Amino acid sequence: MENTLYLITFILTMGLATLITRAAPFILFSKQGEHPLLVFLGRYLPPAIMLLLLIYCVKDVSWFVDKGGVNEIVALSVVVVAHLLFRNSLISILLGTGLYMALKQGAFSLF
Amino acid sequence: MTASTNTALKTTLPVLFGYIPMGMAFGLLLADQGYAWYWATVMGLFIFAGAAQFMAVGLLAAHAGMFEVAMTTLLLNSRHVFYGLSLIHNLKAKGWQRLYVIFGLTDETYSLLTAHHASRSEKDQTMDDEGRFQFIITALNHSYWVTGCTLGALLGSIITFDTTGLDFTLPALFMVLVIEQYKATRKLFPFAIALVCAVSTLILFDSSSMLLISITMTLALLLGTQQLQARGIIK
Lengths: 111, 235
Prior knowledge:
Chain A is mostly helical. Chain A is 75% helix and 0% strand. Chain A has a domain at 58-111. Chain A has 4 helices and no strands. In chain A, helix 3 packs antiparallel against helix 4. Chains A and B meet through helix 1, helix 2, helix 3 and helix 4 of A and helix 1, helix 2, helix 3, helix 4 and helix 5 of B.
C-alpha cells in the first residue's frame, strides 16, 4: 500500500505543479489585462508559438541526412497547399497525415 | 447536440487524432512498468500534460522525491505561463468552467482557443457563447487524452494496426494554425522572430530543452519589438 500512497502523492504533486504553471499568469497579471504590452503579446505571441511548436514537432527528424526530412517536407507542403485551396483544417490535416503515414509505411518505394 | 458542441467537435477532431496515439504511447509505456491500467487513466485525468506524463514514467522508475517531481514539472511546463499571458484578454469562460479551462490549457487547447478567437468576427463576439465554447473544447481534448492513456494501458500488446506516422497530425495541426495566425494578423515579424529563436536554440542547446529556451527568447524579442514600436523607432 506504500506504493499506492507514493503514486497518489506523485500524481497530485505533478498535477498541482502543472496547474501552477497554467494558472500563474491569470493570478499575477489579471489586473493588468489592458496594458499595451499584454495586448501586444496576446496578439503576436500565438503566431510565434505556433511556429515554435511546429518546429518542435519536427526537430528530431535527421534533416538533410540520407533523404531525411523528405517525407515531412512533402506532407507539410500538401497541408499548406490543401489549406490554401480549401481552408478546411480537418481536410488539410487528414490529407497531410494520410500521405505521411503512406510514405512512412513504405507505400511508395520511391522514397 | 447544440450547434456549438457540433462546431467544437469538428474543431477538436485533429487533436483527437493526435491525442489518441500519443496517449496510447504513454499508456503502453506506463503499463510496461508494471502499473495497473487505471493509473494511466488517473494520470491523464489529473495531470493532463503530455510531456510531463512521459517524464513521469522515468521519475516513477527512479522513485524520485516529490521536490524533484515538482521542479521537473514546473520547468517542463513553464511555457504554459506564456500561454496564459496571451489569453488573459481572451479567456471568456466564467466561474468553475474558467478554472477548468486553465487546468486544461495544453499546447493543443491553447492553439485551438487562440485560433478560434482570431477567426471570430466582431459581430458574434458574445462573451457567454465563447466562454461555453472554450469550456467544451477543453473538455473534449481532455476526454480524448484520458481515452488515449486508458486504451494504451488496457490494450497493451493486443494492438495490431500499424499507427506509424499517425502522430503527424500534431505538426500538421500546427502548420494549419501557423497559416490561420498569419491570415488573422497579416504580420510576418512574429514568425521571423520564432524561426530565428528556434534555429539558434537547436544549434546552441540540447534539443530536449528547445521549447523553454526558444519561447523565452521569443518573448524577449517580442517585448523589445513592442518597446521599439511604442517609442516610434520602428513601425
